Amino acid sequence: MEGRYVNVVQTGYTLSLCEVEVYGTENLAFKGTATQSSTYRTWTALHAIDGVRHGPDPEDVSYCSSTSFDSNPWWRLDLQDYYDISTVIITARSDGYEDQINEAEIRIGNSLDNNGNNNPICVVTSGFLIGRTISYSCNGMEGRYVNVVMTGSSPTLVLCEVEVYGKLRMRRTFLRLKFSSSGDVAAESNRILHQLRSVLGSNISDFNLSWTQLPQKQEEEHEEDGGSCVKHL
Fold it and tell me: Has this prediction a pTM greater than 0.85?
């Protein structure tokens, strides 16, 4: 829905709001897959991206992900593509055990070295209380992988929900084209680029053509070589 204003209207007598969050993009975590260093009982890594922040009472914490007892336990989200990550939101479990999420590193990057735990750090978590949801700004860090790595005293990492917001990173691809021409490539360089652009434009979009080096006219008697150009996607 398009809008500048977001109103919450109570038809009764009292309106109480503890927090209002508004996002203009989708939760990227739903596009990804999750894994973790180990799994405690049925508390799989996917429970942290199931769309349920936390249960209303301690009996529902099984909606969370949890590792077993590990040394520096970790959880990883694979977004399946490259994004500029603006925000990561984490929700703690609703029955206590705040140490199982406090002092964890949020790391974002494209490497799987050390299971992705060597990627750059966005932030170290802190301030979690029972069932609390905290938003962390990562200022457009590029990455396909979002890792949460426990570096505190807890041997267990529990995440009741992880939400990731950002935008798809536009990646440039360079393709070198080589072709032959019976005409004077040097004199007709602009016209040739225009013709190539017309042909390529019917199949792809968002590209530019330019000469890496303007073709030179060949004075030899044998068949002349054409120039080369680069296509920027």
Answer: no
pLDDT of 134 reads 96
Q: What is the largest CA-CA distance in the chain?
A: 93
Sign of CA dihedral 192, 193, 198, 202: positive
Asked whether residue 80 carries a pLDDT value surpassing 70, the answer given is yes
- Strands of the sheet containing 174-178, edge to edge, are 174-178, 228-232, 208-211
Q: Quickly list H helices, the chain.
A: 189-200
User: Which one, of 203, 127, 215, 147, lies nearest residue 179 by Cα?
Assistant: 215
- Residues sharing a CB contact under 8 Å with residue 97, sequence separation 6 or more, in sequence order: 158
Which CATH number is correct for 28-168, 3.40.50.300, 1.10.3470.10, 2.60.120.260, 3.40.950.10?
2.60.120.260
